[in-house]
Design brief:
- 2 copies of one chain form a homodimer.
- The first copy, chain A, is of the alpha/beta class.
- Chain A folds into 2 domains: about 130 residues, Aspartate Aminotransferase, domain 1; about 250 residues, Type I PLP-dependent aspartate aminotransferase-like (Major domain) (Aspartate Aminotransferase, domain 2).
- Helices cover about 40% and strands about 15% of the residues of chain A.
- In chain A, strand 11 and strand 12 form a beta hairpin.
- In chain A, helix 1 runs antiparallel to helix 8, helix 3 runs parallel beside helix 4 and helix 5 packs parallel to helix 6.
- The longest helix of chain A has about 40 residues.
- The interface between A and B is large, with 92 and 92 residues.
């Protein structure tokens, strides 16, 4: 028998486990609300566009070239102007296969092993794992309720400069930060641009959740304050329309984008999905987003109520401003990595904070995603989690209705 | 202004050029026949499946996990059994974003800079460029009309063994080899398996064109003779249905696939495309392929006739057995890299042989793809190419009708 172990280099990734289905109470992953998938209008949009332009599927990249379907890029450009105050042209947009590909492309362009990047110290697990895998040093900036602590960032920039270390970029999720859910103030956004210019470090702005603010006004993107090309911006339709559609986008000045594009060697992202989205978004994006936000807000209320009910004061969290997750600080007796293992055995999946922070700040925290489970599952799952937590860690001391 | 040049590492890829549209006579790229896109039945298939299963788009990976849409994997497994005599289960299949992702995933798993692989010396440009970029040494095996020269392969394997070099895999496109169009005989397929076992080197079988044999019978895949897990197999729907749908697949024993899967960090390939294909293929795959083959055969005849007509005996080629390209040997006076530059200025795009071979064997050769241009464009384009060739290289001496 062929033995792959003789062919793997040291440093090969460990084997994947066989997939056994989702846990009963699944509070992980960026899945969204089942009922909010706009099935009927997606179908109608696809019908229209495929009858009109289906022939173009015979070409890689349709008739639009390697940057992605032109009609979709036009929509993105209009939408970014309207919702995030970004003035850009379709020529500065690269459609990618989900924002994860955006991360990979930017990393391939900018990073080599041993490089340094600056990121919010509590951060998206997929960003942290990518940077770890690349052997890149992460310097963490603490986060306040109005976003990245700017003074701390300047200290870091100064310190690195004094050590002659040139950080490759400052990565930030300014709007509904993952996992903290914070929204960076306009003042800080402007300050970030100033620091970026002063220290000549580009900003990588990941705005994947920005469409999902519940009530507050969406602030202008950092990119909107960028007059000198310091910001590389990415967004996605995964969170606003459907995660299984793998369509996101990168936006940067052409002299930057033209250096990123050569790393996209997949002969284009899925065109049917791009066509479907472009046609759908044209007349349905804003109305759809409004309904989705209301649905997610209801689920957010549900999980916050369940946390209050079953965890009481043991669960310390800020009510989400939008998005699909809540970031919870538990008492110091609770090691959430251990809680993760125990809960999974009982059919409850959570994100332990240690995977969502680059230092020890996440040890007693957890991220719960509420987009996909039903309100009933949210309530039951949080209750079960509280019971497991109580049994193992004695926290919470008492559980309502149990 | 931000200057990206200060942030690029040595070895960064050169900048992309702005896309200016396709050349008038486009004989490059795996584009397919416009008229053969099954628009109506694709639309009907999408309608059915999205109404039935659209809600699952709310989940990354639908309800199928990281290996891709289960219904599609089931179809692939049945189809490979029927058409290529491969017995496999859906558990051994990984749906990927086009076979290019399959190449990247296998390369990420198996290769490091300085490694050695064995490939057919005239080969797919995308494979050659990938291996070059990785800094991998390619050892080339000559190709005969019935596929890879097996004696030469054994000499190479012996030689490498004597030098204590362990090739990481033998890459082959056995069925309608790209660019030569050859089909490997069953006898050689079996011999390849024997050598693979004897020298303990896995085979990477790229079978992307196998659905497009015009008249001959499709031989069993090399994978079908593999009892001990030596073969990693990949296929695609790009050539059989539509290039712009980015859906391909990898097939390997689970103990191999489980080591490849962790490198797929894109949260799954496009699900709408997978759903559309699965639903479409269920009842339409065989009938569609039959029509497509007939259409491509007609275009193949057209380009062969045009080559005879305008190039006469200067163009030496074997009439394609299938697929979408013809591989042409021109007289030694013709440098096809130079012809490429000249022709592009006149609106004719060709693949110069130097990009499709790992040694000098391609210097006077060119690949012309005939899937996408109309029969009229094929005739006009080949005529124009002959005129350019004549003007620059004095070959062909005479051109019919000009």
């Amino acid at each position: 028998m062929f033995n792959i172990n003789n062919f793997l280099h040291s440093g090969a990734l460990g084997p994947a486990a066989e997939w056994k289905g989702y846990p009963k109470y699944n509070f992980i992953g960026g899945h969204n609300d089942d009922e909010s998938i706009p099935i009927k209008s997606l179908k109608d949009s696809i019908d229209n566009i495929i009858l009109k332009e289906g022939k173009t599927l015979a070409k890689y990249g349709l008739e639009s070239g390697p940057q992605g379907y032109l009609t979709l890029r036009n929509f993105i450009s209009l939408q970014l102007n309207e919702s995030a105050s970004i003035k850009c042209s379709e020529k500065e947009i690269l459609v990618v296969s989900g924002s994860l590909q955006a991360l990979d492309l930017v990393n391939q362009t900018f990073l080599k092993k041993g490089d340094t990047v600056i990121i919010e110290e509590e951060n998206y697990g997929g960003t942290i794992s990518r940077l770890n895998r690349l052997g890149v040093n992460m310097v963490g900036v603490p986060i306040e309720s109005d976003g990245m602590k700017i003074n701390a960032l300047e200290e870091i920039l100064k310190d690195l400069k004094s050590k002659d270390i040139k950080p490759r970029y400052i990565y930030t999720i300014p709007t509904i930060q993952n996992p903290t859910g914070t929204i960076m103030s306009v003042k800080k956004r402007k300050a970030l641009i100033d620091l970026s210019k002063k220290y000549e470090v580009p900003i990588f702005e990941d705005d994947c959740y920005a469409d999902l603010i519940f009530d507050k006004e969406r602030p202008p993107a950092i990119k909107s304050f960028d007059k000198e090309g310091y910001v590389i911006y990415c967004g996605s339709f995964s969170k606003s329309i459907a995660p299984a559609l793998r369509v996101g986008y990168l936006l940067a000045d052409w002299h930057i984008l033209s250096r990123i594009l050569p790393y996209k060697t997949d002969a284009g992202s899925g065109s049917l999905e791009q066509m479907a989205l472009a046609e759908f978004c044209k007349s349905n994006f804003n109305s759809h987003i409004k309904l989705l936000r209301a649905k997610l807000k209801h689920k957010s209320d549900t999980i916050c109520n369940a946390l209050d009910k079953y965890f009481g004061s043991s669960a310390d969290f800020t009510k989400p401003n939008g998005g699909i997750f809540v970031w919870i600080n538990l008492p110091e007796t609770v090691d959430t990595s251990r809680l993760y293992d125990l809960a999974l055995k009982e059919g409850v999946a959570i994100n332990p904070g240690s995977e969502w922070s680059i230092n020890t700040s996440g040890k007693h925290k957890m991220r719960l995603c509420f987009g996909n489970p039903s309100t009933k599952e949210i309530d039951e799952g949080v209750k079960l989690l509280a019971e497991i937590c109580q049994k193992e860690f004695g926290v919470p001391a008492q559980i309502a209705n149990s």
